Q: What sequence folds into this?
């Protein structure tokens, strides 16, 4: 779409898009950083507020604990009369605003066999302090947790919050201290009660406003203070987590009752709003305080800042648009004039000169360059016609050379009609139009077949000509020399005498007796062929050494021999097979070639050659062929 616009329109769109992108990036980063800063400030405030509130509750509860412990010392140290006990309890309640009630409960029978047990209790009411005996009215104080736990544990204990029916008749938590006679006998328990309504009032007074709220849980997770009153003593943080299937809330509850502190994302119990929770422990009771802040206080401020930034950004973009349109017009006007002139040039009119505007800017330079290009094009058009004709001539000559080269190797299979004692098949794939590989075979007489494969150094026309000369000489020498080593030695002398060519050829030549399967061979630096036995075994033709042919005059060549049995296959190849590369530059290699050949046992000569060539092509996966590939297979069937 942009390509169909004029330069001015495209410049305007791209500049505005870039500016808008930068604006969005800056605004997004600013909003992100603002959220982080506000969150950090909120976290610091929440942590400080939670810790301060928890510390305040801790101080109050420690004060209550100290009061109860002092009361226990007074009761155990002095033999008090009932009236004196009541007076002592009244003073405790009157002088400690945080203490709702205080009790002195004595063990039944402790003051004599007929002593039924007495539990003096003083509690705060609107009219003052009310005294009562908890042993009256069926209130079995000696079975209450606040009495039994300190007695059995022999230490002061904060009770779990509970509703004290028959006692204070309110939700409370009690700090109980066991009292002992000087001789170690258990006397009873003195207590100080804290009203949970007082705790709720303390939490409500926190400076949270509409931003959040606070709650308090006991050491087993029970909600003992919360803005939603029906939760108090009826729900725990774990029951709410189970109801909502909220694993995160369950893990949070575990952290809180373990006495940990922290600041975490949170979802409100009641509003289900996304929030943050700061929690701190109250060590003396094992309770934990949570302070909740809604995320809305962060997003509201950030959204307001974002709207302001957006308005300023849009105004800036509008001003930038005006500026870009003015700049683009001053640039594109001379370009439009140049465009009209170049259309004439594009139509093929190379004789009409271009108008070059005055000045020294880029448009003037571009016009001058187009004029120079027009003159060069006129010259190159004439040169191109001559070059194209020459290339077409070379291409035709290369195709003719390719056809001539391929005609020099046997192409008709089976080559000898009526022969049932062997099969032979070969393929040659040049890497270029013309290659340097060769293969050949000829019947020296009705019972002896000569098989040849070779690879000329280099590629192209020189290699093809050298291959043709090599084939002609070798055929002539093999008809005169019954020993392949002697024929190869004569060929070496002949080719080496033409030393100014700096070329050589690797050759493998063998003469096979078709009556017995005996083969005599020589090797001039070529890859040793393979023998694929009828039984499935794979062998290499014995190594006898031998230098490449045509490099150094006077070099001797050795003869070797091997035996073919009916069904055996002689597989000959050039290094274009093992050095074939895949897309990653890996080689096909000898090990892979041997593994593939073992799978081709029992195939005909043609099937084996085509299958191996297919394996090499599949390995290359379309990679450019770097060397000529030649494969030939001779299968001995035995004398018929």
A:
């Amino acid at each position: 779409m942009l390509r169909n616009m004029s330069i001015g329109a495209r410049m305007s769109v791209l500049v505005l898009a870039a500016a808008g992108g930068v604006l969005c990036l800056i605004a997004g980063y600013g909003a992100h950083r603002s959220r982080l800063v506000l969150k950090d400030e909120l976290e610091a405030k929440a942590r400080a507020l939670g810790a301060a509130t928890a510390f305040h509750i801790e101080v109050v509860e420690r004060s209550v604990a100290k009061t109860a412990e002092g009361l226990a010392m007074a009761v155990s140290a002095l033999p008090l009369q009932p009236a004196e006990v009541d007076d002592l309890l009244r003073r405790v309640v009157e002088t400690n605003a945080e203490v709702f009630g205080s009790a002195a409960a004595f063990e039944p029978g402790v003051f004599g066999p007929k002593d039924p047990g007495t539990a003096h209790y003083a509690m705060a009411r609107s009219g003052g302090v009310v005294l009562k005996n908890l042993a009256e009215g069926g209130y079995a104080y000696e079975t209450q947790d606040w009495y039994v736990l300190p007695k059995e544990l022999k230490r002061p204990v904060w009770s779990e919050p509970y509703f004290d029916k028959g006692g204070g008749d309110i939700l409370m938590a009690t700090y109980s201290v066991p009292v002992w006679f000087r001789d170690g006998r258990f006397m009873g328990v003195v207590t100080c009660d804290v009203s949970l309504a007082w705790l709720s009032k303390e939490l409500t007074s926190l400076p949270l406003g509409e931003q959040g709220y606070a709650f308090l849980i006991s050491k087993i997770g029970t909600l003992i203070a919360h803005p939603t009153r029906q939760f108090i003593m009826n729900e725990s943080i774990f029951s709410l987590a189970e109801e909502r299937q909220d694993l995160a809330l369950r893990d949070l509850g575990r952290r809180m009752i373990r006495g940990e502190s922290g600041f975490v994302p949170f979802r409100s119990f009641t509003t289900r709003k996304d929030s943050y929770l700061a929690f701190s422990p109250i060590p003396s009771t094992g309770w934990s305080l949570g302070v909740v802040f809604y995320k809305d206080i962060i997003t509201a401020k950030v959204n307001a800042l974002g709207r302001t930034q957006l308005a300023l950004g849009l105004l800036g973009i509008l001003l930038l648009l005006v500026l870009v349109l003015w700049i683009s017009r001053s640039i594109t006007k001379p370009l439009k004039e140049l465009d009209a002139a170049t259309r004439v040039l594009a139509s093929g009119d190379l004789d009409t000169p271009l108008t070059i505007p005055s000045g020294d800017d880029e448009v003037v330079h571009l016009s001058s360059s187009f004029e120079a290009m027009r003159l060069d094009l006129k010259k190159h058009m004439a040169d191109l016609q001559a070059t194209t004709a020459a290339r077409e001539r070379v291409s035709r000559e290369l195709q003719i050379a390719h056809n001539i080269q391929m005609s020099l190797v046997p192409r008709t299979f089976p080559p000898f009609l009526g022969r049932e004692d062997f099969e032979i098949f070969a393929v040659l794939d040049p890497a270029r139009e013309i290659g340097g590989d060769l293969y050949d075979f000829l019947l020296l007489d009705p019972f002896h077949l000569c098989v040849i494969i070779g690879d000329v150094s280099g590629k192209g026309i020189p290699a093809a000509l050298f291959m043709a000369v090599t084939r002609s000489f070798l055929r002539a020498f093999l008809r005169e020399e019954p020993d392949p080593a002697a024929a190869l030695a004569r060929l070496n002398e002949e080719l080496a005498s033409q030393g100014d060519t700096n070329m050589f050829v690797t050759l493998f030549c063998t003469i096979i007796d078709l009556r017995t399967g005996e083969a005599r061979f020589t090797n001039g630096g070529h890859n040793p062929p393979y023998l694929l036995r009828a039984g499935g075994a794979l062998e290499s033709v014995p190594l006898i050494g031998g230098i490449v042919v045509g490099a150094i005059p006077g070099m001797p060549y050795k003869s070797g021999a091997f035996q073919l049995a009916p069904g055996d296959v002689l597989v000959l190849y050039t290094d274009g097979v093992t050095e074939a590369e895949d897309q990653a530059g890996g080689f096909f290699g000898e090990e892979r070639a041997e593994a593939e050949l073992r799978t081709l046992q029992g195939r005909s000569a043609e099937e084996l050659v085509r299958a191996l060539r297919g394996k090499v092509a599949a390995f290359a996966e379309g990679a450019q062929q770097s060397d000529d590939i030649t494969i030939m297979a001779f299968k001995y069937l035995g004398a018929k």
